[in-house]
From TrEMBL:
PROSITE patterns, alphabetized: ABC_TM1
UniProt KW keywords: Cell inner membrane, Cell membrane, Membrane, Transmembrane, Transmembrane helix, Transport
Name of the protein this chain belongs to: ABC transporter permease subunit
Keyword Cell membrane: yes
Species assigned in the record: Mycoplana ramosa (Mycoplana bullata)
Family listed: Belongs to the binding-protein-dependent transport system permease family.
Ranges that cross the membrane: 32-55, 81-104, 116-145, 165-188, 209-233, 272-293
Pfam families per UniProt: BPD_transp_1
Presence of keyword Cell cycle: no
Localization annotation: Cell inner membrane; Cell membrane
Length: 301
């Protein structure tokens, strides 16, 4: 090939370089374009709109900090934020206490037993909202099945109200314990039986195995599961609204305040966007902590 022909090919490639770069970009990102559009329309754009609305004046023009000042100076808003934090912390802690031994037990099951229990947990995790509120009322409501059975047996049982603290806790745990189990199950399965055998050969007991080997490896994943459970409980909307639909909630929450103030237009209330942005801040911080814990746990497993 002559030097003239080679220079012509190089010049032609240089001319079509932007086209080739766009073609490579389309081939690399083309399959992901639908999900990018959906996420932008349903996640990124609403977050931007809510953030803008939280700083908007009542007239809809200009920026102001009065919305945030009004929320944090309001006694009811402070109670709702503290109640939400307390409820979610208790729900996440109970999910860890119940879910950790349950997850470990599932790792010891055979293939059929594990598949059967995974199916049940998956169904329970996705059963929430109005359906779960109805199940709570039908099971342990004032005239629920379990309530009537206990009273028929001569026991005095006064079930908690659906919109009370313990009513929310009981209803939340139905979905969040399975969620915690499903999140931590892969990490639990990574603990190999050979490590326990090696500890026994070295004269270590089961307690030493858990303190020195198993728990240090699993603790970052358990903590990450706690954080995700806390965040999911904080953002849960349908279930508390359905449980509190009968009247004024006994235990006010952020999501319940949003459901009352969000009437029609997104900008109909200046308090609702601020509450929504507060939830987004909690979610962002939780995601950062979750990534840090997973990175720390990956060092061991």
């Amino acid at each position: 090939m002559t030097a003239t022909a080679s220079s012509g090919i190089v010049a032609e490639r240089g001319l079509f370089a932007p086209v080739l770069a766009l073609r490579r970009l389309a081939l690399a990102w083309g399959p992901a374009l639908p999900i990018i559009i959906v996420c932008s329309a349903t996640l990124i754009l609403p977050c931007l709109v809510l953030t803008r609305a939280s700083f908007a004046e009542a007239t809809g023009t200009g920026f102001t900090l009065s919305n945030w000042t009004a929320v944090f100076s309001s006694k009811s808003a402070q109670v709702q934020i503290l109640n939400s934090l307390q409820l979610c912390a208790v729900v996440a802690t109970i999910a860890v206490i119940v879910g950790t031994p349950l997850t470990w037990t599932m790792t010891r099951l055979g293939r059929r037993g594990r598949a059967f229990n995974l199916g049940i947990l998956t169904v329970a995790q996705n059963f929430s909202g109005i359906g779960l509120a109805f199940g709570f009322t039908a099971a342990i409501g004032a005239y629920g099945m379990i309530t009537l059975m206990l009273r028929a047996g001569g026991l005095t049982f006064n079930p908690p109200a659906g919109s009370s603290f313990w009513g929310f806790v009981i209803a939340y745990e139905y979905g969040f314990v399975p969620m915690f189990v499903l999140m931590t199950l892969p990490a639990m399965r990574s603990i190999r039986p050979e490590w326990w055998d090696a500890c026994q050969c070295c004269g270590a007991g089961r307690l030493r195995f858990w303190i020195s080997i198993a728990l240090p490896m699993l603790l970052p994943y358990i903590a990450a599961g706690w954080i995700l459970t806390f965040t999911a409980a904080m953002s849960l909307y349908g279930l508390p609204v359905a449980l509190a639909a009968e009247g004024r909630p006994i235990y006010p929450l952020i999501t319940l305040d949003m459901s009352r103030t969000m009437l029609g237009s997104l900008f109909g209330s200046q308090r609702m966007p601020v509450m929504a942005v507060i939830l987004m801040i909690f979610a962002a911080l939780s995601l950062v902590l979750y990534r840090i814990l997973l990175k720390r746990g990956a060092k061991w497993l």
